[in-house]
Structures are given as C-alpha cells and as structure tokens.
Amino acid sequence: MNSKPRLSALSLGRIFVAVAAVSGALLFQKAQLAAMLRPGDTVQIQFSEAHRLRTSVSDVKMSGVDIGVVRSVEDEDGVTTVTVKVDDDTRKAMGTAPSARVRPTTLLGGNYYVEIVPGGRRGEFEGTIPVERTELPVELDGVASAFPADARTGVRSSTKVLDSTLDEGGTRALREILESAPGTLRSTDDVLRALQGTSPRTDLADLVRGGENASTVLSSENARLGDTVDALATTARVLEARRHDVAEAARTMPASLDETATLLDSLDGVLASLEATADPARPSVRELARLLDHADPVLGRARPVVRDLRGVLRDARPLVTTLIPISRDLDATVDNVRGPVLDRVNGPIVDQLTSSWHGTGEYEGGGADRPLYKETGYMFANLTQANMMDENGSMVSFLPGMGPGSLAGLPISLEDLLVALTKGGQ
User: Fold this and answer.
1) Residues 185-226: pLDDT tens digits?
2) Gap between the Cα atoms of 381 and 257, Å rounded
C-alpha cells in the first residue's frame, strides 16, 4: 500500500533534479541564449588579434551607446574575424566606410568592448570592416615596457618620495586645497554647464560624433596629411630663410598701403569716367564686332600676301641699305635748292609761265589769252606731227609753235609770198 507514494515521490524528485539541471544549464548559457535570441543584423570585423573579447559577453557600442554584442571570434591566417550582432538600422548609421576598435571599460583594463566609429559617406554599410580600419587598445603594461629600465626605476622612486612628502605635511596641504576647492568647483560647474551647450542631451554627443568623424577622415587621409605637413615644413623653412625680407615688407607695408589707397582713389575717378563712356561706346563695340567678323575672310586671303611679303622685305633690305646714304645726299641737295633758287622759281619764272602774252607796238593784236605754259604745252603736242607719210613719201614738219603766219603787220603774209614765188617759178 505504501509503494505507490514512494514511487510518486521518487518521480517528483527526478523531475525536480531534471528541472534544476536544465535551469542550471540555461543559467550558465544565459549570455549565449540572449545573444542568439537578440534581434538585429550581423556585421563582421577583422582585427589583428582578439584581445580578450569574449563571445556573447563583450558589448558593441557606437558613440557610447550599446548597440549589440559579440557573437563569435575566429582566428584564421593571422587575422581574427569578430562577428557582432547589432540593432536594426545600425548599418544605416555606420556610413559606407566605418572603422572599429577594441576599448577597455576602465583605465586599468578589465572587460573590453568593440566600438564602431561611423565613417565615409552617408548610406548603409555593406561588407566587412577590414583590418586596415581597426585598432587595438594600448595596455598600461605595454606603455610601461616602452620606457627604459632607468625610467621605470625613477617612477618607483618618485612614488616613494611622494609618499614621504605626504607624511611630512603634504596631507595637510591637500586638506587645505580641498577646503578651498568648493568655491573653485562652483565656477567650474558653471563652465561645464556652458560646455554642455543649449541642448545638453544632444550637443555633447554631436560634438563627440563630429570629432570622431573628423579623426576618421584624418586617419583615412594619412598620405595627404603627411604631404600637407611636409609642405608646411617647406613653407616654414622658406619663411625662416626670407625673414629679413618679410620684416622689411612689414616695415614698408604702411607706406605701400597709403600709396595703394591713393591709387585706388584715382582709379575710382577713372572707373567713373569709364562707366560714363561705356554706354555710348556700346554701339561702336557692336559694330566693331561685326567688322571683325567680316574681316576674318579678308585676313584669311591676306595671309599668303603677308607670307610672300616677308621674302620681298628680305630682298628689299639691300636696296634700303643703299638708299640710306642716297637719302642723306638728297637731303643735302634739297637744302641747297631751298632759298634763292626756290625764290626765283616761285617768283619771276612762275609769274611768266602763268601770264598770257599779247604783242605790243607793231605786234599788237598778236598772242593769245592762254598762259604761256599752255602755249608751250600745245607747242610740244604739235611735235607729234614731226614724221608724216603721204603719197610723195616722208615729210618732216617741225612746228615748234611759230610759223610764217606768226608775224603780224606785214603787207603780205609770208605764206602768200611763198605761194606767189612758187607760181612764178612754174
């Protein structure tokens, strides 16, 4: 009768032990289960080493805010690939080229977490953060090992000296500082409040985020930053070499600025005059533009002439060289002609050539109203009749402008006399 209750108690005991075992297992796997069940996206980050990151324990932060947890850490070919699970929409806030680094939670180390720094252009991140954009923390022991042994010994000695200084009255001085600190701290509180900005919840975070973005850009542009530093160094060397010239320029700069001001005042007047003449000149400028458009084909046709003109000028150089002394002699000749010779030509000779001739006395009525130079011209024009051909052969008729009929006042003209003599001979 008592066996059934014993079996029921045994069964209950077994169930309790099983439930306790399962609860213990779940308790020990709490972090893994929480990381597995946590919603979000996975991102892979490459580091040179894991550096104390723990699966399902180490947090992932961005701008100081928890955004995920480390899911797995795998080493392969000298590169550690850390897979993290981050909250939804975190990829959009990371940018197209984010970076990552392992940070300690305290100054002395302890737990470590992964910090993601946004970078690149705005947009959703795709892919893996490479090892070139990741950093590992610098441990305090690593910093200490970088110092020489003598420096480390000096630090230990300084610590002992500090302890003895505190024992010899330094503690009292510290108490006095602490007593006077509240007044100073109140002013410091005002300064810190001012540093928080107008929106304390967002301004400081935005400032930190902007500083991180600036540092990311600078770290991604190391080559250009190095070139800029080298250029600045070169500029500094040049300025140092020309410091005397720079000092002289600074000394004479006030006078130069005064002269520049005077020149600008004068230029202001010139510009005012130019502005007044600009409007009337616009039609001429438009016409000039059309003229230049029409002149283009003319200049095109003139190019061969100009090209040939070079050879003509080259061939004419000896002629010009020869004409130079001739022109000097001609200049002397012209100087000699001036004076009495020109006065005589301009005086009685020109008067005689421009006056008409009329006979006087017995020759009154002869001559003509035309001036002498015209009569002379007619005389030379009649010389074209010097050679004439007729049926009797060649005959020369030289008529210089005067003939037998030119004589006036005779009872019979010379032409009639010659005709009568001819008939008498027949």
Assistant:
1) 667 777 777 766 677 677 777 777 777 777 777 666 666 777
2) 82
- Edge-to-edge order in the sheet of strand 134-135: 128-129, 41-47, 79-86, 65-76, 59-62, 109-117, 99-106, 134-135
Question: Which residues lie below 8 Å from residue 104, measured CB to CB, with a gap of 6+?
Answer: 110, 111, 112, 137
C-alpha 21: how far from its chain's center?
77
Task: Using the structure block, give the residue that is written with the tokens 């010379």.
Answer: 414
d(CA 130, CA 369): 121
CA distance linking residue 410 with residue 418, whole number of Å = 14
The dihedral built from the CA positions of residue 325, 326, 331 and 335, taken in this order, carries a sign that is positive
65 DSSP assignment: E
CA 71, CA 42: separation in Å to the nearest integer?
9
**pTM metric for this prediction:** 0.33
Residue whose pair of structure tokens reads 């000779």 in the numeric block: 349
Coil, helix or strand for 54? coil
Work out whether strand 134-135 and strand 356-358 pair parallel, antiparallel, or are unpaired. Answer: unpaired
CA 267 to chain centre: 27
Q: Write out pLDDT tens, residues 125-151.
A: 998 999 999 998 876 655 666 566 776
What does DSSP assign to residue 139? P
